[in-house]
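Subject: Sanity check before I submit

Could someone independently write out the structure tokens for this chain? I want to compare against mine line by line before I put it in a report. The sequence has 412 residues.
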Amino acid sequence: MVVPDAVLGRILRVVGARSLNTFGRAVINATVVWELYGDTANFLVLAGVGFVQVLPVILLFVPAGTLVDRSDRRLLATAAVATTGGIGIGLAIVSATHAPVIAFYGLLFVQGCVNVIHAPASSSLIPLILPRDQLGRANRISSSLQELAAIIGPALAGLALIWVAPQWIYAFVAITGVASAVMYRSLPEARVIPDPTGAAVAARKDWRVGLRFIWRSPLLLPALTLDMFAVLFAGVTALLPAIATDVLHTNAFGYGILRASQSAGAVVAAVLGGRLPPWKRPGRVLLVVVALFGAATMGVGLSTSLPLTVILLVTCGALDNISVVIRLTLEQLVVPDAIRGRVSAVHYVFIGMSNELGAAESGLAAFLVGAVPAIIAGGAVAIVVVGVVAAKWRALVTMPPLADLKPEAAPE
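---
Independent answer below. Compare away.
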């Protein structure tokens, strides 16, 4: 299929802006956990990094979703990524002055607030500026570039930490924030999709509609449940500083390679996925890849070899990419536009909370039982969750190809 130049330009700009923001956040997160663990060697400090970023998800998802539905999503995304650049400057000052850990936490809390707005604003912007038949392509390109950014960010941060102080790495994030803001601002104003249902129009006044829509959706709810619990329990990112130093006995650059490995696998999966025909049973694929993700995570916990750990993390990243593409495309196809912002905000609670709460859970579990047992147990829990979801939501198992899905009715 030939894509018009104007549409391709929009795809590249919006995914470029999102990818630069991902790059900046990846640099911040990789540098913060390495610096704080190096200074304290305390798993609870790592748990705190996740905790302070999950608090805004819990506190602000309701007003964030309403704000997105009532505002210019392009301008909201622009402001959010510019603020991320400013947070990089703040972290540079805090690091250079050897401020206490609480100062890092304060800036990370602000970053969490920014993410709560950026995630639904940028996600719900895509279907308003692109044709429906280009959403799958846009999600694959976006996933590829964001994962590439997540590869380069931690790898460069790990390499830079060998030669320069952390404050210079944080300061660099300001450049990515400005560039991302320029890309968002250059996009056209979002078109308004006519809403054929009176219920959706009335629902604009009700912030709970996003939660009700997901709760009643036979497809979106189990898909989000799978992803949330897999990341919550089977995520290992927060413990990689400890794995790198205490188990694999490598340096900052080795840590950067570990941080980049999952994203490398995601890029490979995205490239290969673009060459494969659409999944005939995407729901079954989702269940299988999450189960394999849990098994690969258990392997990471058992490994004492750097090359083997890298291979397992690459595998985790490839499996996670398949899950992300299916889940994002599913949401964009079944959610009515009138409530898309609030649904995206609740979606971010599932995913954003699982990422950051997963980091907090990992740090706390490692403090209680050790890093290796915590990782192995987390992978096992993810496999159990797959079995529960498959048994409870048969609609996901029998879900047709994504291209055949239609928007579901908004709650009355």
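---
OP: Matches mine. For the report I'm noting this point. Confidence is low (pLDDT under 50) at residues 192-204.
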